[in-house]
Amino acid sequence: MDITPITRAAVSDEVFARLVDEILSGRLAPGDALPAERELAERFGVNRHAIREALKGVRQARLVHIAQGGKTRVLDWRENAGLEVLSTLASVGVVPPIRLLRDVTEMRRSVAADAARLCAERASDSQRAAIVELADDYPDGGYAADAAFWTAVIEGSGNLAYLLALNTLLAGMRGVGESVFGALGLDGELFDRRAHVELARRIADGDGDGAHRLTSELLGRVIVSLDALASEVSIEDATSGVPGN
């Protein structure tokens, strides 16, 4: 482990981030034992309370476990970690950001499309009215308005797991690259007010299949764009060493 002391005020969040970086980058491999709390405190230059809190977070993320004999050993994040490590995966470069964005948006489309279908079938009259109102008041773009709209749709679906997944996916998208969506021209869905109004109408009419199809089309646009962007990057990488390129 190549760890340098933390020079600013000691906080457990910073220690947590450093430990997660070591694990996701592979510098700490599955099965490796973490140093004892005292040693970690000395390496990071922080108190043991900060180390203890950081380790609690790493365990909750299912990146380490307490093995027989009391040692804290690294787990394989591919087999044990949850969606909460999405943004960290991108920040440490374990997974290319474009691929991660693509995977996140693909899952978001699947969850949202099924939630829209369920919402059309299950939502109460008040929930349908709220969704229609959010669509009618939908601005010309904006992540906050979009998040509010989809939160209402998923709440109307009655699926708690979908709601929690949406929260995690939105946090992951913000951490992975929300700021680059506009720069790369990937935020077209946010500006399509007409599609949101039409989706709200289908939900209000109880048209589950229609709501599913429209959601898949609307949220699939960014996936198509990311696929094209990933292909361009791959071509550039493949030709970067070819004479004349």
Automatic annotation (TrEMBL):
SMART domains tied to this protein: FCD, HTH_GNTR
GO molecular function, one term: DNA binding
Keywords tagged on the record: DNA-binding, Transcription, Transcription regulation
Pfam families cross-referenced by the UniProt entry: FCD, GntR
Domain HTH gntR-type: 9-77
Listed name of the protein: Putative GntR family transcriptional regulator
